[in-house]
Write a structure and sequence with these properties.
This protein is mainly alpha-helical. It has one domain. Helices cover about 55% and strands about 5% of the residues. The protein has a two-stranded parallel ribbon with strand order 1-4. Strands 2-3 form a two-stranded antiparallel ribbon. A two-stranded parallel ribbon has the order 5-6. A hairpin with a 2-residue loop joins strand 2 and strand 3. Helix 3 runs antiparallel to helix 4. The longest helix has 27 residues. It is globular, with a radius of gyration of 21 Å. The termini are close together. One of its GO terms (biological process) is lipid biosynthetic process. This is Linoleoyl-CoA desaturase. It comes from Mariniradius saccharolyticus AK6.
Length: about 375
């Protein structure tokens, strides 16, 4: 495994000034970077809604399309909770107390996902090396969809802009029932090597899968007295809705024609400072929309999240204003699309990736270098 590093930990322009201004924001307003009252209200609010939906499903009062609708809304509510709790907890952004963050990180396990493997894959690989092929697993997920110019182009990729939404709908099923077991066999995450994985985490993973199958499938099936086929149909439908939701929130923010991809040189060095690269590899969407910010856990303001992942998402809406102003002063390429625009740009870039080896026109990718 080649270790990768960035040229300078902190440059002397945009990123340095932005760090100073973000620190000043919290100092001057005398507020914590972690969770505040609004965050806890949001968590309690969505927990109550999610619990109420589950109770409604088990009530036996809904059937057919009505029950299918409940499962879909239940799945979306779970996703909003995960975006808000699990994601922040895995970044240690809820509390200064690590045991509190660890506790809330088990929100992932509550829906069938190993919080241990999520943190390894998401924090060490994706956040550490965003859009660095060979290091960022998020842009190397499947040979069926080409998400970066360093991956090999196949004949069927010229249709990927048409079938990608269908593949995204399968994301949730893949993450819950397959991905963790694949990660169990993986031992390199970013620059971090772990071999073997802790036995404790393997047992937690197994317990997680048993738990989610029990309350998501077996309990509703028994209480509602429906066939296994019908129950599995509702369950799959719920995951398809979740998959589309997370796919169209998380994938486009790094995969558009304006998203930067970079490769390290032969010494493993990426010739850009980490902060500037993060901002250049990421786009925002609907950054001025409070509602979208609320339901996505701030992930529509993705630039500030990648630059300051340990800050609670409840602050992102205000902090993004500082990012925009600082970027403007330094003539730095900050991108904010409307929701429809980011989806169009993403699908357009997928089409380009399917037709052209290197649609980025970055000469690094003409060499098709690979990290082993």
């Amino acid at each position: 495994m080649q270790k990768v590093k960035f040229d300078h930990p902190l440059d002397h322009g945009f990123y340095k000034v932005l760090v100073e201004r973000i620190e000043a924001y919290f100092h001057d307003n005398q507020i914590s970077k972690k969770a505040n009252g609004l965050f806890w209200f949001k968590i309690v609010f969505y927990f109550i809604i999610t619990a109420a939906l589950y109770i409604a499903i088990l009530s036996g009062k809904f059937h057919g399309l009505g029950l299918a609708f409940l499962f879909v809304v239940f799945g979306i509510s779970i996703t909003i909770l995960l975006f808000s709790i699990g994601h922040d907890a895995s970044h240690h952004a809820i509390s200064k107390s690590q045991w509190v963050n660890r506790l809330f990180a088990y929100a992932w396990n509550a829906v069938g996902i190993s919080s241990y493997f999520w943190e390894l894959k998401h924090n060490f690989a994706h956040h550490g090396f965003t859009n660095i092929p060979g290091k960022d697993d998020d842009i190397d997920q499947s040979k069926l969809v080409r998400l970066n110019p360093n991956s090999k182009r196949k004949w069927f990729h010229k249709y990927q802009h048409l079938y990608a939404p269908f593949l995204y709908s399968l994301l949730s099923l893949n993450i819950v029932y397959f991905k963790d077991f694949k990660l169990l066999l993986q031992h390199n995450f970013g620059n971090r090597a772990i071999n073997p994985h802790p036995t404790k985490e393997i047992w937690i993973l197994i317990a997680t899968k048993v738990f989610v199958i029990s309350y998501m499938i077996i309990v509703p099936k028994m209480v509602l007295e429906i066939s296994w086929m019908e129950m599995l149909g509702y369950h799959v439908l719920m995951h398809l809705a979740i998959g589309l939701f997370i796919g169209f929130v998380l994938v486009p923010v790094h995969v558009t024609g304006e998203s930067e991809y970079r490769l390290p040189d032969e010494t493993g060095t990426v010739h850009r400072d980490w902060g500037s690269h993060q901002a250049e590899a990421t786009v925002d969407f609907a950054a001025e929309n409070n509602f979208i910010n609320w339901i996505t856990g701030g992930l529509n303001t993705h630039v500030i999240h990648h630059l300051f992942p340990t800050i609670n998402h409840i602050h992102y809406f205000q902090l993004t204003k500082i990012v925009k102003q600082t970027a403007k002063e330094f003539n730095f390429p900050y991108r904010n699309y409307s929701l429809s625009k980011v989806l169009i740009e993403h699908l357009r870039f997928l089409k380009q990736l399917g037709k052209t080896d290197n649609p980025t026109h970055n000469p690094q990718f003409d060499l098709k270098a690979e990290i082993v």
